[in-house]
Amino acid sequence: MHAMDVMTTDVITVGRDMAIQDLAKLLAERGISGVPVVDSSGALVGVISEGDLLHRAEIGTAHRHRERRRSWWLDDFASVLARDYVKSHGRTVSDLMTRDVVSVAEETDLADVAALLEAKRIKRVPVVRDGKIVGIISRANIVRAVGATKGTASREGENDDRSVRARLLGELGGEEWAKVWPEDVIVREGVVHFWLSDDEPEAKRQALRVAAETIAGVRGVEEHLLRAPAYPAF
Fold first, then answer.
1. Per DSSP, what are the bridge partners of residue 127?
2. Long-range contacts of 166-175 (CB under 8 A, 24+ apart)
3. What CATH number corresponds to the domain at position 208?
4. Which segments within 60-173 are labelled E, that is strand?
5. Residue-level pLDDT at 8
6. pLDDT at residue number 233
7. Is the predicted pLDDT of residue 1 greater than 90, yes or no?
């Protein structure tokens, strides 16, 4: 399998000039932990995550550095202080974002993606085409891909699976009732795997099955139910 087979394609991005407060609201409202940063042409220029917002002067969480004795490494320590100051006082995404972005291509083998996530100790990586972002692949995407396998490695039929997935997503995209994220649909060896919340209406689940069964090449449909998030009562 490749990055394109499991990646999230509906990617939320932000611009470099977005205010930090607006970014924080976006992350909280969308329930996401980070976003790619793009320029006016849509080219990927950085990434920013909730970790970049942890130490902020506004809420009193800025780093507290103990007084250091003068030494030969004073200049290095001054650089650390300067970077921390920018992190805690910067006003726009451009001030806080990581510019040295690790990315992969759509055709990158899933094994290479997994190795990259592990080696870099990151949770997600942008997928780019000609410098512009076309998707995001995360550890969760890879875990779901594992759940869609039968425990044996096979590369036969990958192109057919990709074609089936593309046609199915195209079919669902034209239906108002079919609110399904692309990353929640994986096709493996002709079997369509839907990852659905356990509070989804039965009618919708049945319609998804019927839609999948109308696609040529589909050999079966499997549902993987995820527990719906529990919201505290006020």
1. 104, 135
2. 167/215, 167/216, 168/192, 168/211, 168/212, 168/215, 168/218, 171/211, 171/214, 171/215, 172/208, 172/211, 175/207, 175/211
3. 3.30.1340
4. 104-105, 124-129, 132-138
5. 87
6. 43
7. no
Q: Which residue has the tokens 């969308």?
A: 30
Q: Which two tokens stand for residue 159?
A: 């192109």
- What string of DSSP letters covers 132-157? EEEEEEEHHHHHHHHHTS-SS---TT
Closest by CA to 48, choosing from 64, 75, 26, is 26
Average pLDDT rounded to a whole number, residues 114-118: 90
Please check whether residue 202 lies inside any domain of the structure. yes
Q: What type of residue sits at position 122? A: I
Any domain includes 5:
yes
- Helix 158-173 with 202-213: angle, nearest 10 deg: 130
- The single residue listed with the structure tokens 């980070």 is 34
CA distances from 9 to 92, 106, 181 (A): 26, 11, 8
pLDDT digits (tens, 9 = 90+) for 153-164: 455 556 788 899
Residues 182, 97 share a domain: no
